[in-house]
Protein 1
Amino acid sequence: MSHYVTEPCIKCKYTDCVAVCPVDCFHEGANMLVIDEDECIDCGACVDECPVTAIFPEEDLPEKWQDYIEINREYAAKWPLINETKDALATADEFKDVTDKKDQIDPAPGEGS
């Protein structure tokens, strides 16, 4: 099993989750994070750290966000590893409560750490 980052992360990219992760499973895109399911040890430490409730274990993943399993798989293979916290995006406060923003995923990689 793994955990997956979902829609609330888009255009926010808080990295509190990265700070508590005991393994290197987070990858950084331009405007969100994803989890490499092969590296995730399913510890759940990241779930409570996410200020926008964007991370779920597979068994608790809301039906409306099932496609984020594939999104995490695809981008974890393309985006650089992030294992240090960074400031949230400047758009975080504006977009933290916005819904239906999957079409705003930026496929560009982040800087990583």
Protein 2
Amino acid sequence: PGVNSCNTCHPDGKGLEKAGAKGRKDWTNPGGTWLNLEDTNNVCIIMAVKGKALNPHSQEMKDLVAYIKSLAKK
């Protein structure tokens, strides 16, 4: 079966705790290393979820980035 959501690879946000950390200068995922969280998210959406990239300035992307940042370890 194919991957169909972020939750497939990251159940309950697991594995994203470091992604939301303040002060990050780059992010790495199976697609490579990226300079911002928006690009990192879109690579996962395209490669793993087989979906369409989100506009980096869209409310959906802002919501996704906010969610990931909320997972950062305090």
Protein 3
Amino acid sequence: MKDFESRLERLEFLAERIRDQDVPLEEAIKVFEEGMKLSKGLKKELEKMQGKVETLLNGPDDASGPPEVTLFSTDGEA
């Protein structure tokens, strides 16, 4: 499946389908299996996205140049 949103929609459909009491047991097992695979893949992708967001949030404020390093206090204290 293509993008995150379409896979999430598919997972939601599968969740609704498995709740249907008219689904035969064999089909319910197949639906469950597909849902588990989708959920694991989506979880991994979410973790990657979270890592990217954390990197962006914790990174330097100005990425246009090298970080500024100050060796001595500029307020006159040693």
